[in-house]
C-alpha cells in the first residue's frame, strides 16, 4: 500500500524534520474495554510484526483505565495507541504537540464512524430510555467517547437528566465496555452503553465493536439483550503516534497497520475488534467536533 503510506506522509506532520535519534523499545498502549489478557491476545500478532520491522523489543501495555493510556502518551511512555476520539481530544487539549493521528478504521461499508449503543436485558422489559426512570444506568469510563462523552451529551440534550437520582435512579461507571456489557447481562445494572459500528446483525453483536468482541468471546448471547438507544454517528478514534518518534519509525508502524487487512486478515480482525475493511489516513480536523464536546464537559 505504497500510495496509502504516501498519502499519510503527505497529509500529516510526519514530514516535519525530526531530530536524529534511535529507539531502544517501542510501546503499544491499549485502551480498556475488555480484560487485559484478551486485549493482549488480540494485539499480539501486531506486536510481533512491529518488533520484526523495528528491530527493538515491542511491549504491550494495558492500563486499568483510559487515563493510563492518555497519561502514557502525554508522558512519552506509550508510543502508539488506537485512541477513542474523546481520549484523543483529552491528549490534544492537554498538549497539542504530544501525538498525531495517522490512521482510522474503515468499516465494511466504507464509513469511518460508529455509534454509542444503549442496551438492556430483553427480559427486563426495558425498550427505551422512557422505561429507565428510577433505574440504574451503567457507563464505561469517563474518558470513553461512546461509553460516556457522547451519551452524556446526547441523552442530556434529549431531556433525560444525567445527574444521579434526578431521572435515572443512579448513574454508575463500571470501568470499561466489557464490564458494562457483563454488568447488564448479569443484572448488576438495568442498562448500559457501549460501542458498535451499527452494521450487520444484532444477533452477532454487529460487525465490529465491544458487543461483537463480547459475543465472540462467549461472554453474552446477544439474543438475551435488546437495544434501547442509539447515538448519532461518532467519528472513529485514530491510531495515534507520539510526535517525537523518529520519522522512519512512524512510517514503518503506519505501513504495517495500513496493510494489515491485506497481509494478515486474522490479525486485523483482532486489532479492529471485528470485521472491518481497512485502516486509512485520517487528519486532526476529523476530531474538531469531539474536541469541542470535550471542552464543554471539562
TrEMBL record:
InterPro entries xrefs: PhnD (IPR005770), Phosphnate-bd (IPR017797)
Signal as UniProt keyword: yes
Keyword Signal in annotation: yes
UniProt superkingdom: Bacteria
GO biological process, one term: transmembrane transport
GO cellular component, one term: ATP-binding cassette (ABC) transporter complex
Pfam families (UniProt xref): Phosphonate-bd
Record's signal peptide: 1-20
Keywords, ordered alphabetically: Signal
Record-linked NCBIfam families: 3A0109s03R (TIGR01098), PhnD (TIGR03431)
Family: Belongs to the phosphate/phosphite/phosphonate binding protein family.
Name listed for the protein in its UniProt record: Phosphonate ABC transporter, periplasmic phosphonate-binding protein
Amino acid at each position: 500500500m505504497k500510495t496509502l503510506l504516501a498519502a499519510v506522509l503527505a497529509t500529516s506532520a510526519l514530514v516535519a524534520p525530526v531530530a536524529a535519534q534511535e529507539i531502544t523499545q517501542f510501546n503499544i498502549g491499549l485502551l480498556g474495554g475488555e480484560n487485559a489478557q484478551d486485549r493482549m491476545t488480540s494485539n499480539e500478532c501486531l506486536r510481533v510484526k512491529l518488533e520484526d520491522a523495528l528491530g527493538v523489543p515491542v511491549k504491550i501495555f494495558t492500563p486499568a483505565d483510559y487515563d493510563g493510556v492518555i497519561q502514557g502518551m502525554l508522558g512519552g511512555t506509550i508510543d502508539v495507541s488506537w485512541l477513542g476520539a474523546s481520549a484523543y481530544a483529552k491528549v490534544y487539549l492537554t498538549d497539542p504537540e504530544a501525538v498525531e493521528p495517522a490512521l482510522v478504521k474503515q468499516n465494511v461499508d466504507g464509513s469511518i464512524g460508529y455509534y454509542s449503543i444503549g442496551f438492556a436485558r430483553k427480559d427486563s422489559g426495558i425498550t427505551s430510555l422512557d422505561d429507565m426512570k428510577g433505574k440504574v444506568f451503567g457507563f464505561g469510563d469517563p474518558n470513553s467517547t461512546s461509553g460516556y462523552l457522547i451519551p452524556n451529551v446526547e441523552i442530556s440534550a434529549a431531556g433525560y437528566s444525567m445527574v444521579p437520582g434526578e431521572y435515572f435512579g443512579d448513574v454508575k461507571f463500571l470501568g470499561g465496555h466489557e464490564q458494562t456489557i457483563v454488568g447488564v447481562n448479569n443484572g448488576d445494572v438495568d442498562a448500559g452503553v457501549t460501542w458498535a459500528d451499527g452494521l450487520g446483525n444484532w444477533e452477532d453483536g454487529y460487525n465490529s465493536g465491544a458487543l461483537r468482541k463480547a459475543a465472540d468471546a462467549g461472554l453474552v448471547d446477544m439474543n438475551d439483550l435488546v437495544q434501547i438507544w442509539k447515538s448519532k454517528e461518532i467519528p472513529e478514534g485514530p491510531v495515534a503516534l507520539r510526535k517525537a518518534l523518529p520519522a522512519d519509525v512512524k512510517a514503518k508502524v503506519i505501513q504495517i497497520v495500513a496493510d494489515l487487512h491485506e497481509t494478515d486478515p486474522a490479525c486485523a480482525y483482532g486489532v479492529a475488534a471485528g470485521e472491518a475493511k481497512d485502516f486509512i489516513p485520517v487528519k486532526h480536523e476529523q476530531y474538531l467536533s469531539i474536541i469541542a464536546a470535550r471542552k464543554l464537559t471539562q
